[in-house]
Amino acid sequence: MNGSIRFVFGACVAVSLIMVAVALRLWGAAEVRSNAGEVFFLTLVGAVWLIFATKLFSWLGLNFRDDVMERRNVAALVALCGALLAVAIIYAGGSLGEGPSYMNNFFSAALGTAGFLLLWIFLEFGAKVSMSIGEERDLASGLRMCGFLLAIGLVLGRAAAGGWHSESATVRDFMRDGWPAAILWAIALAIERLVRPSRRRPFPGWPICGLLPALFYVALAAVWLWHLGAWEGMPK
Asked: Among 51, 21, 19, which residue's Cα sits nearest to residue 36?
């Protein structure tokens, strides 16, 4: 069992880093796209970014070692994989677009990651999702959390992408393009209160109460990305 868990999480890490590298190679700044060394460097920084982010996940009630490896909690594994992929999407989005220095990329990625963590904190305060996942081991809750985190990762990653002008312009563009993440949070909060485990229904069915809401969140995010279209300076 532990070997399977390690394989799944390791595959999620690999997919996250491959996604970052491919995004940089296809849509990064012209200087980055033309230099494999820079793609490798920014992907390596992305790996460090993901490691740091996973340390923060434990403060939000989900810990890979405790919940996944020791307790073999599949719901926590699903939620953490969604969180990891979402942070990778945000980091990749913040690294896309023309700019004079790496610090511009890091500022955009940090802005997106901060927004991601803030919405997760708000959902945790409002619905105690970590209790449903970590203590009650509810797979439906893990799937919903995975879908929610992926959805806001897509929205905030897209909001962080684009050419660099200034810190204030970046924040303004981020708010303009990323505000639907707050709507997703409100929807997720309402759904959590309706379908989370309760005395009357201690084990909600994961297809209807877990997978369906998760797909709904991601579909809403995809519609918003389609509405926004290409970001400023996106290579054709």
From this structure: 21
Distance of CA 182 to CAs 88, 155, 186, 195, Å? 20, 10, 6, 20
Does residue 35 come out as left (phi exceeding 0), alpha (psi in the -120 to 50 range) or beta? beta
Q: What is the pLDDT of residue 2?
A: 65
* 120 exposure class (CB count in 10 Å sphere: 0-12, 13-18, 19+): buried
SS3 of 94-145: the string is: HCECCCCCHHHHHHHHHHHHHHHHHHHHHHHHHHCHHHHHHHCCCHHHHHHH
Contact in structure between 64 and 9 (CB atoms under 8 Å): yes
181-211 pLDDT, tens digit each: 999 999 999 999 999 888 888 788 999 999 9
**Cβ(190)–Cβ(143) under 8 Å?**
no
pLDDT in tens, 84-143: 999 999 999 999 988 788 888 899 999 999 999 999 999 999 999 999 998 899 999 999
The residue written with tokens 């909600």 in the block is: 204
- Helices then strands, counting H and E runs in the chain, come out as 11, 0
Task: Give the three-state DSSP class for 28.
Answer: strand
